[in-house]
Amino acid sequence: MEIAGKMDSAVRLKDVTRSYEMGKVKVEALRGVTMEIAAGRFSVIAGPSGSGKTTLLNIMGLIDSPTGGTVEVCGTDVLRLNDDALSDFRARKVSFVFQTFNLIPVLSAYENVEYPLLLAKMPVQERKQRTMEMLEAVGIADFSRHRPNELSGGQRQRVAIARALSKRPDIVLADEPTANLDSKTGSAIIDLMLRMQRDHHATFIFCSHDRQVFEYAEELFIMKDGLLIERKVTT
Amino acid sequence: MNKTVSLAIRNAARNKRRSITTVLAIAVGAASIILFGGYKQSMKYGFETNIVQIIGHLHIYRRGFFSYGAGNPSHYSIDNYQGLIDSITGDPQLRDKLTVTTPVISLFGIAGNYAKDASKTFFGRGIVPSDKAAINKWNDYGIRLYRVNRTEITDNDTEGGIIGQGLARMLRLCDELAVKDCEVQPAAVVKSDNAAKEDFSALEEPSTALEPKGQYPRLDLLGASSKGAPNVVSLFIRKAVNQGDKMTDENYVEMHIDLAKRLVFGKDKGRVTGIILQLKHTRDIPFVVERLRGRFKAEGLDLETEDFEQLVPAFGQAISMFNTIFSFIAVVMCIIVLFTVVNTITMSIMERVNEIGTTRALGVRRSGIVRLFITEGALLGATGATVGVIAAVAAGYIINIAGLTWMPPFNVEPVYITILIFQEPWFVPLTWGSLTTLSIVSSFFPARRASRMAVVDALRHV
User: 3-state DSSP call for residue B270?
Assistant: First the structure.
């Protein structure tokens, strides 16, 4: 197993463990993962179902806490932060693209993209401009007034990507973002994310077991049974 | 519009049926509280108006009269009452607050109808008819009243008076006074005894007519004079008036104050048992009482004041009863609102667990989630309370113009069923604010629970 070298890292994990109690059974989702993900790269965490890749992604996104180990995101030891500070950290530096899109159903496409900017308290004019820029960038500007239930799966994921990038986060975490899309739409979405990653210089961390996605990865981490078993750099 | 409010409105509109049901439940609660509260207020102000129209706001008595005067009114009388009245009405601090200042004599004795060999103990009062008519006109709250004028005698009618219908029945004056539903006393009970008549006649003043004056029946009233000697005057009854409760109706005699003076004080015309003050506004009572106390003390007068609530304890008891019923209704309504809102917000949270996880993942703090659901609760509460206020105002208006009446206990005339929603300016805003606040409080606990869900668990929720 190869460990990332000492470079500017977006995420740095050391001996991270995560176990759950499921009834009387203790499930060890992560069994001591140590890894470092370089900033500004398109990284993919791959592995079969149950390998712990989603748990790892959740810990990197500060929406789950490890049972043990240390987690450093963008140079911050996030385990020292309280809940409000973690929320603020996510609001500023981390974005998610979910498999099920997770758009807020009562908001239009425009408002969904604008929402993180409201949380960041961006001034109105700048917010409007940024939102429209992002909608245009993902090719969905014509549907800005549509609500999620009026959009196709691909269009929803484009809105989700625009939402994830609107606040210019340091890290974008995507958990199987193409799993609910057909292969053609999935490819388009991956192309879009690659383009956005290049344009915005954000760190993209993908979690997938889709081999189509691996081809795009600059860094590929292979997980199995809660352990990081391999790291490949494809650049 | 603030994004939280905008989100709350949209989320409330998501499940229209549930939101409308919640709003209606709150509206029913608000309308019930306001309507019954409005009715309670109409009862309070109606009672007050009714009492003040009869006995005024304040009575001035010789100290001790309130406790002992009924047994010996002449002993607890006020000397030179006209000087005292002039002094009070001339007081620059009191002048503008008074509407009527009038003397009154409370008295008791035996009333006899010689023509039919009937007699009965009585109590009553002597009044100045024109002042009584003025007192009857007080209606500071604009209450819709069934009766306007209770005066049957005039200032010139110094030998006239009224009696209770029950007393008329006992003195066998039903036909003469045209008393309705008046049972004739069985013949076996009536016995002729001229001895009393003869004793009574010997006490009469020579100037008093011995026969009915015109068409009015005469009563001979026996009382104790201020010196303890028996005294008799003749009263010509203008009308028998129902006094509401049986005891008063069978004992009450109201007469011109001059006649009462003759009976109680004989030739000493400068004395009365009390002075009635009627104020422009009930709220001025504390000021006037304080001012009078100060004057009595400064002038060395052995006088005291009693307000209408002290003189008629039933007023406070009735208000207390209505307050208790109102509190009970308000508490029940608040409990219904509380559970309705808790249920609605809990259901809303259950349906949006994944959404809560998403917003938390986007960076919304726990307090943001609490704020969102509290805003939804506040929105439902405010909308429901507003609908309730509108419904209550509409229903109150319809009830007020419908002219419905009922007969309260101890009343002579029926009273209108009236809803006074805006009589107390704070009542509607307080009800509205309380229900909205209750909705917020009801939302808080489910909202707090929602905010404490683990983000990752919420995102997994389907």
Answer: coil
Q: What's the full length of chain B, in residues?
A: 462
pLDDT, tens digit, for every residue of A108-120?
999 999 999 999 8
* pLDDT range class, residue A2, cuts 50, 70, 90: very low
Q: Is B57 a domain residue?
A: no
Residues of chain B with pLDDT > 90, as a percent, come to: 63
Boundary (domain end) residue, out of B245, B267, B301? B301
Residues B342 and B413 in one domain: yes
95-134 of A, contacting B, C-beta below 8 A: 95-96, 98, 100, 102, 104-107, 115-116, 118-120
Shared-domain flag, residues B20 and B91: no
Do B289 and B390 lie in one domain? The reply is: no
Least confident of A183-187, B60-64, B111-115, B322-326: A183-187
Q: Is A139 left (phi over 0), alpha (psi -120 to 50) or beta?
A: left
**Nearest Cα to B150, choosing from B163, B136, B138, B161?**
B136
- Residues whose CB is less than 8 angstroms from the CB of residue B280 and which lie 6 or more positions away in sequence, other chains included: B96, B97, B98, B99, B140
What pLDDT was estimated at residue B147? 61
- Average pLDDT score, chain B: 88
Q: Is the CB of A64 inside 8 Å of chain B's CB atoms?
A: yes
Band (A235; pLDDT cuts 50, 70, 90): low
Q: Write down the pLDDT at residue B244.
A: 75
Q: Are residues B134 and B219 in the same domain?
A: yes
Both B339 and B266 in one domain: the answer is: no
Three-class SS of residue A94?
Answer: strand
**Domain that residue B82 falls in:** 64-301
Q: Give yes or no: residues B295 and B425 share one domain.
A: no
Q: Does position B201 have pLDDT exceeding 50, yes or no?
A: no
| Residues B124 and B174 reside in one and the same domain | yes
- Among B358, B362, B461, the strongest candidate for a mutation testing the A interface, having the largest count of A CBs within 10 A, is B362
How far apart CA A134 and CA A196 sit, in angstroms, is: 10
Give the separation between CA A96 and CA B249, rounded to whole angstroms.
Answer: 86
So what's the pLDDT on residue B131? 94
Interface test with A, best of B15, B356, B358 (most A CBs within 10 A): B358
Q: Which amino acid is at B246?
A: K
B72 is written with which tokens?
């010996």
Please count the structural domains in chain B: 2
Instruction: Give domain status of residue B29, yes or no.
Output: yes
The verdict on residue B361 lying in a domain is yes
Task: Indicate if the pLDDT at residue B148 is higher than 80.
Answer: no
Q: Which residues of chain A make contact with B355, given a CB cutoff of 8 A?
A: 102, 104-105
CB atoms within 10 A of CB B30: 28
pLDDT score of A73 more than 70 = yes
**What domains appear along chain A, each with residue ranges and CATH number?**
41-65+82-233 (3.40.50.300)
